[in-house]
Amino acid sequence: MNDLPAQISLDQWAERYRQLCDGGLREPWYGGPLARHLADGDYRLLRLRYDNSAAALRLWNFLLTEESRLFKARQEGKKIIGTMKDLGTVPIMAYSLPNAIAFYPDGAWWVPCIMENTTRDLRIADSLGIDESFCPVRAMLGAFVACEHFPQPDLLICSVGATCDDFSAIAQRLASVGYSPFWWEIPHRRRPDPDEPAVTLPGGFAAPVSQVAFVKGELQRIRRELSTVCSRELTDDMLAAGIRVANRVRGMLRELRQLVFTAPRCPLPALELLIAEMLAIHYCSDRGETLAVYQDLLDEVRRRVADNQGLFPADPARIFWVNPVADLRAMNLLEECGGRLCGTEFLFCHALDEIPEDVSPMDALAQMALADPMVGSAGDRAMRICNDARRLNAEAVLISRIPGASHCALEGRVIREMIESELRLPVLELEVPPLSDAVGPAIQTRMQALVEAVRQRRAR
Amino acid sequence: MSVSIAYLSPFVPAEWIEAHGLRARRVEAEGGVSAAAGACPLATAFAQCASDRDAVVFTTTCDQMRRMAERCCIDPSRVFLMNVPATWETAGAFALYTAELRRLGRFMVRLGGIAPAAQQLATVMREHDIARRSGAVVVDGGTPVAMVGAPLRREDRWLFDCVNHAGGCVALDATEGGPRCWPAQFDERGMAADPLAELARKYFLTIPDAFRRPDTLLQEYLQREVALRTIRGVILVRYLWCDQWHAQLVRLKESLKIPVIEIDLGGQDHDLPRIRTRIESLIGILR
Ligand code: SF4
Ligand code: SF4
Predict the structure, then answer these.
(1) pLDDT cut 90: percent of chain B above it
(2) Ligand 1 centroid – CA A407 distance (Å)
(3) pTM of the model
(4) Could you give the domains of chain A?
């Protein structure tokens, strides 16, 4: 069997799957050929290119079976906690309880893409007044109302305050049609005054002690609510254990990212890395399995790096990617245009940082929540991106704008200006719609121009 | 001459600024049409207008305004970004708002203001209360409609004339800056006990707005006022890219059960005839 890394189509996966099975592939219960997900309406899979490893197959199968996992958990009597917007903090609390499972309804963000607009979600959102001037997360509203894609949660927990207007408005609309989110406040993270007691947060930002205390108070409210809904007291010990597992997950992902970004030959495509990063936010509804998926990916990537195997022709342009992309196909496009990922900031870098274990669990979680790049200033976020891009030897930065997102217009400009002035790197700002086929050639041309700019700089 | 503090949000109490001996200047924004795609023209206009003031207070009441604080061309030491919690039903949120007022106070002291004695603050509060209650507008004639939404820029004031010319009258001005955004009347006992706490209570716990979570204060206010004034239709004014108010459109149609039209502000001048026609049509239907 040829085990050299390659990107293959969904059709090619059929043959590859047979090869892997013949070679003794062992799969978890959610395993199987990738093409079977077409029957669920995941038509975008036909347009994507995939890494050909068994580890990547497991990753994709894990991602695409979340819905059935959630329904299974419900049947088993687990409490389903819908966590909204905070990206990373509340799921750690929920998973610390033995009878709870957390997921992000926000994940419906990708439904219009994956299912190629074949669902009712967007039409329902439109009818409720949440039209395409909002970010693609509006699909979540339709998904709730249509009772599709996930079971109705036992508890919905939504952060507001220093969040995007899109999400806040959509969550309120959800409340107006009969859902009752448990609102909690995440304040705008500000720089501490000169004489004010301050804390350095995971990831390096600073925040006043008073803000950490406030967020801790908010998380205490969530803790009480979770304890009530799950009929189990959520103790400090349980939370500390939950944080330890989260740190294991994050540690594995950090190593994976480091290898992918820095190996001389790219050992994992951008698309698979994006999906791997997403798992860290809420474990794709199965914490233990997330660790196993990461382990497989790490083993594969370590092996490829040790054997100096990789994808793509020689020396692709090293691109740092900012913001998640509404159409997964865009990640493939970057590589088809001669680029490779050398760093990412998909809006949730706080969900990848190590959580402190030398303070009380609630303090640690409060610090983590405040470290969210989206709750601070665009300048802070831009600075972190600059530092990471410098450290990872980026040759260019691509900022993918999210259609309708309230933060993109101003934030994109701040990030661009800082990168241009501090790093003097080419920057491309690009809006990618959930289905980019119609504008694909234009996106491709602009990505090619970015790669060309990198090549010209190398030649100088 | 004392320092003047520019602000726009109704959650910045003018009483608190004036009690510090500074001038409170609620900016009537203008311009902002050249806002970047995706940027709210109102937030852009406010940042532009505030750029030549002594100091400016932005609020975190929406994402666009929060981020605009970074783009204001003024010495950053003269920009104050005030955290106004979106949640309002918890003791923690109220305490945060009060703490932010105190932090604003320290900011003003750095600019030359003087921390007020309780009595002094109470006096200013009483003066503002009287001024607010004495400004009742009498409206009669024409089909009663409500104007609801974001604050109007100077160049958007023609909307009121447009309503009148079409045979209507704005019997409820629920745009930001109108009575919707006034705090409830201060309580004498509350002021005697702790004027700052009373100020925070009335501002934070009674002003309805679209960004608040939940937004029940806004819904209750509109239902009450629409019934009281026998309002027949609603003109929802919303700036391009404003999610908070845009999301209210269908919501208000459902809850108020009267015709609601949405007017997009901050676009191009050639949109104006279309806006006029839509207002005329609404009032024509309601007559
Ligand atoms: S992509 Fe941006 S606008 Fe959309 S929900 Fe996420 S943070 Fe909000
Ligand atoms: S109009 Fe809307 S987006 Fe603009 S500042 Fe007001 S609330 Fe924010």
Answers:
(1) 80
(2) 8
(3) 0.96
(4) 240-459 (3.40.50.11900)
Average pLDDT over residues A387-406: 96
Residue in chain B nearest A127 by alpha carbon: B250
Q: Atom 3 in ligand 1: which residue has the minimum CA distance?
A: A405
Q: Quick check: CB of A135 below 6 Å from ligand 1?
A: yes
Please tell me the distance from the alpha carbon of residue B180 to that of residue A345, in angstroms, as a whole number: 41
Q: Which pLDDT belongs to residue B71? A: 85
Q: Which residue would you say has higher pLDDT here, B136 or B10?
A: B10
pLDDT of residue B51: 82
Q: What pLDDT sits at residue B133?
A: 87
Q: Which domains, ranges and CATH numbers included, belong to chain B?
A: 4-131 (3.40.50.11890), 143-286 (3.40.50.11900)
CA B267–ligand 2 middle distance (angstroms): 14
Mean pLDDT for B276-283 is 96
Instruction: Please tell me the residue having the least CA distance from ligand 2 atom 6.
Output: B150
Which range among A59-73, A266-280, A371-385, A401-415 shows the weakest confidence by mean pLDDT?
A401-415
pLDDT of residue A409: 86
Interface test with B, best of A133, A134, A172 (most B CBs within 10 A): A172
Would you state the pLDDT for residue B118? 97
pLDDT of residue B1 exceeding 70, the answer is no
Which of A449, A387, A441, A383 is closest to A411 using CA atoms?
A383
Cβ-nearest to B81 among A166, A190, A411: A190
Q: Give A375 Cα–ligand 1 centroid separation in angstroms.
A: 12
A51 within 8 A of A268, measured Cβ to Cβ: yes
Q: What is the mean pLDDT of residues A132-150?
A: 94
Q: What is the ipTM of this complex?
A: 0.95
pLDDT in tens, B135-147: 656 566 899 999 9
Q: What chain A residue is nearest to B59 in terms of C-alpha separation? A: A188
Q: Is the pLDDT of residue B31 over 90?
A: no
Q: How far is the CA of B211 from the centre of ligand 1 (A)?
A: 16
Ligand 1 pocket mutation, candidates A86, A347, A375, criterion most atoms within 8 A of CB: A347
User: What average pLDDT is seen over chain A?
Assistant: 96
| pLDDT at B33 exceeding the cut of 80 | no
B248-256 helix and A165-176 helix, angle to the nearest 10 degrees: 20
Answer yes or no: is the C-beta of A166 below 6 A from any ligand 1 atom. yes
Burial class (CB in 10 A: 0-12, 13-18, 19+), B73: exposed
B70, B96, B247: residue with CB nearest A173: B247
